Fold:
Amino acid sequence: MAASWKQRFRLQTGLALVSLLAWSACNPPPAPPNSAPPQRVVVLGPSTAESLIALGLQDRLVGVSDYCLAPEAQHLPKLGGQLNPSTEALAALRPDLVITQGSFPRLQTFLSGLGIENLAFATDSWSAWREEILLLGDRFQVESRSQDLLEAKERQLAAVRKTVAGKTPVRTVLVVSRKATEISGLVVVGGSSFLHEMLEAAGGRNAFAENSSPYFDLNEEALIRAAPDCILEFDPSGSAPEKNKALELWSSTFPQLPAVQSGKIFLMKEDFLMLPGPRMPAIAAAMAERLHLPAGEEGP
Structure:
């Protein structure tokens, strides 16, 4: 994969996730204050921006991060990432609420000094996203919408599970980052990421489910021992080589892997793959579409 995607993943997702997990271990999201619903909201967590939009609250958004992908928010001011937001631009928007994924002490101190509420989530699982939606529904006083949204998404995920019911789970490695021109520097999904959950819903079996990290660096020996039957490479930026080139790289480096021998290596280019939000059922559906193709058949 291209270095830009790898750097972006490690900086904006990896480091933020470390902060998120360290904070959430001892600090669950606080109960929302008993006050009027926020009217001017800045969201620096891209997945939460999509959650607010799914709740019909896009009119409350006044600013988002550079990594917000929602079409409904593309006209809004971009304020940088969670690690390096433009505090000057943020303050100029006069928000009454700023939402982040994880805890960022400097930002919290800045917001506190301005009297701006900060709501911080720790969302990297299906259950945590449910909690996020319920809390947003309460904070914005749209409880019925939050319940409706959760029920709709549960139905969508159940529909994916139904399509793969009875099929043998496919032993899979989910690669979220690697070097652009070679199969090295692999970052893969462990057992505590929402992507692990979506893989299971799609009829896959995570080859590294026993690793408690959400994402981790994988060495060559561990990959060979895992002997995956399928490899799903994530490339939301669309910068990786096409499947034939990727398969060529994998074949020259790990010809012994069952996934390589059967040609079950798929590039996933959907732009929402790394967002633990309302499009998680679509992530599971995209995985299922590839996982259960016959050996040698081209994926979407």
